[in-house]
Amino acid sequence: xxxxxxxxxxxxxxxxxxxxxxxxxxxxxxxxxxxxxxxxxxxxxxxxxxxxxxxxxxxxxxxxxxxxxxxxxxxxxxxxxxxxxxxxxxxxxxxxxxxxxxxxxxxxxxxxxxxxxxxxxxxxxxxxxxxxxxxxxxxxxxxxxxxxxxxxxxxxxxxxxxxxxx
Length: 166
Prior knowledge:
Elements (H helix, E strand, L loop, with lengths): L1 H29 E5 L14 E5 L1 H4 L8 E5 L7 E9 L3 E3 L10 E3 L4 E5 L9 H4 L2 E2 L3 E10 L20
Antiparallel strand pairs: 1-2, 2-9, 3-4, 3-9, 4-7, 5-6, 7-8
């Protein structure tokens, strides 16, 4: 009887570890569901919107300008940020705020990206903390799940003029 209980316990622990590893790999490499908070991505993503973030793009270095990403905050590693990629390494970006009379520009260093919120007047982003290391990117948001009336792929940036091509 003790042997039978021990065998069941060991099988249960084995399955738990197995499925735990599968779940970890799925969330680490495939993606997951994220609840966004804060006003920085309005009007594209509202506070409490639920989105799907896929993680394969960051592993294969397929992040492009215009993508919305989830990244570890450079200011607080315990929290995540949701921002749009404005520039990749080597790109020239506008580092000033939209209200600034004189515009300043800089180049994104190797291994970094420039992230900004769509709500430029209410966003703490690369204009505050500088270029973000590529390794802090956790995933790329590809689909809005909730609210249902907004279900689908995300729209283009309302700040397309901030993407510089020279």
